[in-house]
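Input record (one chain):
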Amino acid sequence: MKVLLVNGGPHKEECTYTALMEISKILNEEGIETEIFWIKNEPISGCIACKICAKKGECVFNDVVNEFVKKAENADGFVFGTPVHYASASGAITSFMDRVFYSASCSGKKSFFRYKPAAAICSARRAGTTATYDQLNKYFGINEMPIISSRYWNMVHGTSPEEVRQDKEGMQIMRILARNMSYYLKCIEAGKKLGVNLPKNEDIEYTNFI
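The corresponding structure, as predicted from the sequence alone:
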């Protein structure tokens, strides 16, 4: 089993990374492979709704989004992490996740994410974390992904990795989150061995309002 952890921060090894590393450490102790995927700090275009992904099978902008979707196919779970910018997720990870989930859906690759557990974590100096947490969870809800929680909202506080590590409650929340993710993945694995089938899918029905 493998979990992809997405670092949506502009710095490769700062506060968001520190929280993700705490999760990764516990998952590894639980026998689960991990990979931290940094979205880098180059500009990431937002989705332009061209729907070329439906024809090509991937986003028209060939960048970290397509790189990630290829990895997502073989992942069993996900953790998306972001710093808080103006009481919301970073602009980069917002564009990234918009295109990841939209292109996967339009290209018929939604099954890469359906039923796979996901968690959102956020890092802030002080506030804006709960709004950011709510924002990221909506991506999982619309893609039929079980949302993994912890004993409190999934957040850490600090302006540097050293300060984040001093947030003892925040780091504990990351560890509990990792164990909850591990438990859920192992339950899925056990269910498969017992012949428990995935839910039946229905054709999507759209109701538009004028």
